[in-house]
Design a protein that fits this description.
263 residues, 9% strand, mainly alpha, 7 strands, 37% helix, elongated
């Protein structure tokens, strides 16, 4: 059942939260309402989306990309009732829920996972994944922190395929910085970033190096005379002013180009 939660003013100043999109932040707040008093919530994305956005027509792939953002930065963690990565029922755990919520009378009768079982799961995660926990004086309250450089929630390494939302260039500022000084410096960052993001969400795509893939896409656009520069402004019907080369840009050409992106 849904529960009353509070939002502290410093939530809006949190620099780490600023790294995720506004939709991911809103989703995170909503998850507080549907998590139990230990910070556990059902991980099924269909169920979560129906609870959080019952009146919005939101693509499930898009919704799941917000969850991946929250996982990437440690706001939510996937846990299994087996204590391992598979073999049990999966839930999300919100490590900071009990830290920031004042729960005077925690309801231990209405839990997704028994309190003792959750403690065992977190202890296994501590041993197997290099986490450490701080046990507070209040019963059952734990703060789960990541060890240096390792995510136990299934985070991708640099040599593994990962979602665009997990890549460093998901941040448009970093995307622009990576292109500075290159032949792609004049690219329309908003245009390319949005098209890559939409394509990745629509296909649930993973790649090893999203920056290399984006550069390859831009190189193909340059070769085909369709490179989108900063002075190009798309209109509502999906087309806009002529790029610097004078070539037309269509939605089909965008997806044809990105389908040629390397792994």
């Amino acid at each position: 059942m849904a529960r009353f939660r509070t939002i502290k003013p410093k939530f809006w100043d949190d620099a780490k939260l600023a790294l995720v999109t506004r939709d991911a932040r809103l989703t995170y707040i909503a998850m507080w309402n549907f998590a139990d008093d230990l910070g556990v919530i059902i991980s099924k994305s269909v169920w979560l989306k129906s609870k959080i956005y019952p009146h919005d027509q939101i693509n499930l792939v898009k919704f799941e990309s917000w969850l991946r953002e929250l996982e990437k930065f440690g706001f939510i963690k996937m846990i299994s009732t087996s204590g391992k990565g598979s073999g049990g029922e999966l839930f999300y755990y919100l490590p900071n829920l009990t830290k920031h919520q004042v729960i005077n009378r925690p309801n231990y009768e209405d839990l997704f996972i028994d309190k003792k079982l959750l403690e065992e799961i977190l202890e296994i995660s501590l041993i197997d994944h290099g986490l450490f926990t701080d046990q507070s004086s209040q019963g059952g309250e734990r703060r789960v922190k990541e060890s240096k450089g390792k995510e136990w929630s299934g985070g991708e390494g640099k040599d593994k395929k990962h979602f665009f939302s997990d890549s460093e260039i998901f941040d448009k500022t970093i995307f622009q910085q990576k292109l500075n000084g290159s032949q792609y410096e004049s690219a329309n960052i908003d245009w390319y970033h949005e098209q890559i993001k939409n394509w990745a969400d629509s296909k649930d795509e993973k790649k090893i190096n999203w920056l290399a893939a984006a550069k390859n896409w831009m190189a193909n656009d340059m070769k085909d005379g369709k490179f989108i520069t900063k002075n190009f402004t798309p209109t509502q019907n999906g087309k806009g002013a002529k790029p610097a080369t004078g070539a037309d840009v269509s939605t089909k050409s965008v997806f044809d180009a990105i389908d040629r992106m390397p792994e």
